[in-house]
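Risk register update: the risk that structure generation would not scale has been downgraded. Supporting records follow, first protein first.
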Amino acid sequence: MSKKPGRRLLGQNRMLWLLDALERDPGRDQLIDMLGARVRVLPLGRVRDVLHGTWLGHPVHPMAIHLPLGSWMSAAVLDVKPGRSRQADLLVALGLAGAAPAALSGLVDWAELRREQQRVGLLHAWANTAAVGLYGASLVMRLSGKGAKGRVLGYLGLTAVGVGGLLGGHLAYRQAAGANHAEEVPHVVRDGWHRVGGVDDFPAGEAVRCVVDDVPVLVVRESGGEVHALAERCSHLAGPLSEGTVADGCVQCPWHGSVFRLSDGWNVEGPATAPQPAFDTRVVDGHVEVRLPGDGVPDTVEGAATAGATPGTDGGRTS
């Protein structure tokens, strides 16, 4: 059978096959459960949110790894030169010092991931732990005058860091660990007001899930009549906020406990590092309507509870 011009058969990506197999392997689940439980009960208080990166707007861990990785890469370049390099020794030690906060920030993130992500993340942690051990041994050899052995151990450590980086990249870009799972909402929902149901469809203080342009939306009507609407899928790992707890003007995700303010979607508590997209709301003729803020559509409808515009495509309330 002849091949069509300009086309070639692509073989299976063995590396991707291996990484996908790691996601499906339950062999380490008991260990994952034990480690995850211990990390979640660590008495970190507000430091936990600092380590997650709620103050930064995205996870701290990818930023924290630059110090050890950059130091060790620089030491590897200096080690190419013959003889002992005190600068390389210093860089190895600096990388070891920076590894601790990087590891702790990654650990608290790992404990709040999905099971498939945790399976890959555990191997990512093992590879980086091996790198720390190798660089620690390298530093001991360097300081004891065994520079050649120290350099060899350093290059082995850098190899382990590379394996850890490969697994970390799979976590971030294939499995979307640490990504904002609500980022697409403002780009999917069309401009204009969208009717999502009658006022009576939203019991006071209860979380109700609606759909606008195929995007799930959480609507909560307060006892005083004010209506709030947020993207319903949690920015952390797309947990269903409509199944969460509504209290004190906030909603808590039922999956990992992230807390968001209903008035503007702000992430009050982690592990979520990104706020929820929030919608403008109004009541027109006994119906609740929502729209993206600042969509540029002029407000023209008479009788709206707030400044309004021509209603857009109807949404739908779901149970």
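Supporting record for the second protein:
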Amino acid sequence: MEGQQAGEGAGKGFRAIADELRGRIADGLYPLRSFLPSQRDLAEELGVSRDTVQRALRELSDEGWIESRRGSGSRVIKVQRIQSTVPKATRPSRGLTLDLFISEAFEAPEVALDVYTLTSESLSAHIGLQAQRIRRGSISPQKITLRMLLPDASLPLPYPRVKDDRTDTRPLERLRAITDLHTTSLQTALNDLRTEKLVPSVDVRIRHAPLPPAFKLYLLNGKEALHGMYEVVERPMQLEGGEVVTALDVIGVGSTLTHHVKDQDAHSPGSVFVESMRLWFDSVWERLTR
């Protein structure tokens, strides 16, 4: 959950690079126990200095994603886990990743996403990838509808916070800045598709609920759900100005997601779960309009 580092151009600060690498790990590009490219190769590919890459890798190491050893490089030691309730015979042969499910959702003529999350960081990255596919002509949805529930900015969230100082508001201010950055990014990415006449109909709506999210929820085209509880972790956190504090934080990209599918049997566990989550989302959404 990182924002742009001041002083480096166009989102190329170490936090943006950490976002990119974290997303690649979550999407399976760098599988568990694999090694990341060298710092030199990453710096060249991403258009930043090696110092920026080193700071990003240090951030991922502090969060427990990678293990870095001098002379050996950086190895992935944690990945996002997605477990599916769908029988193995009908699952895709490649690994289950959030990127896979969102990519499949965008292959439909009409895309409908309902998302409940702490920040819009993960979704922003995936929307950007789908926008690239649309521009390349790989997919051509005719309608995209996104409804996203985020926590109210005035809500005194329990996390993130400095471990030994509940009065320090800087981690929450950092979280809100990150949320604003990524929310603006995904809104721009989707609305540009409509402006450029690549997608005839785009409807992006965001509402803020007085609820601290205990879980992350993606409802995909009314047929599938990805649901996972946030895990609270203790980790070093670098604040603006460079100060590093010990924080209690939640990292959504590291949470385990469970995949549920609605089928023809209205009483099957998957159908019941997807429908119950849809009704819950709709009820919260409608209450926020009153």
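Residues 1-12 have pLDDT under 50 and may be disordered. On this basis the risk owner (M.S.) recommends closing the item.
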